[in-house]
Amino acid sequence: MIKFIEETVDYLKNKGFDSPEIGIILGTGLGQLINDVEVIKEVSYNHIPNFPTATVEFHKGKLIYGVMAGKKVIVMQGRFHLYEGYSLQDVTYPVRIMEKLGIHTLLVSNASGAINLDFKKGELMLIEDHINLQGSSPLAFKGVELLGERFTDMSAPYNADINSKFKSIAETNNITLHEGVYVSVVGPQLETRAEYRMLKIMGADAVGMSTVPEIIVANHLKLKVAAVSVLTDECDPDNLKPVDISEIIAMAEKAEPDMVILFKELIKSL
To answer: pTM above 0.85?
Structure first.
């Protein structure tokens, strides 16, 4: 993997990806943030050596380098998921690349379902902690100790200072920002009523199919990390209706302007 990482980093440096400070991963239906980035360079994933390729139709599949709120950023427009057939090492490969290019902070967004029924669709949730139900770890491979501490501490995976800033920004801008526990499952099927009940008992406030692998690797690399979920549906097992994916995407797009404000104002303060 070290050889692959070096090849990818050299390619991107030659393309002009010069010392980004902050990495951003955009989740399902969350692409409007790009409108606030002064784009310097962009490269399609399928042109980047050793990079996975996004296979989900609503994921763009571009790595974008530019300036946002006065800071150099590198943005993943489209992410990778275990359910696409990738390994956890594939899913998290871009985080390793962004770290080698120079980022010190990783900001992550996702679309998720609200298990906590006090939370409503169209609102945002700041991830305070997570539960990994993806069946493995992105650090579970031979030679991982060459890239960072094998037994990575996860007692506080989300940066408290950044989370505090997010909450302050939300209050200033009258944005509803819940705080809770995100559980990551494999997917791509959505949960049964019994599974929603189980996840609630386990202490989850929202459920999705991403984010946790990237957070684990970011902690492995000693990056500062924060993540925000856009709540796109309400997972009430007693009143469960079939989910329309197009409605989920539409709800993500509706809530996205608030997320853009949070990210933009936060980046100004970093």
So the answer is: yes
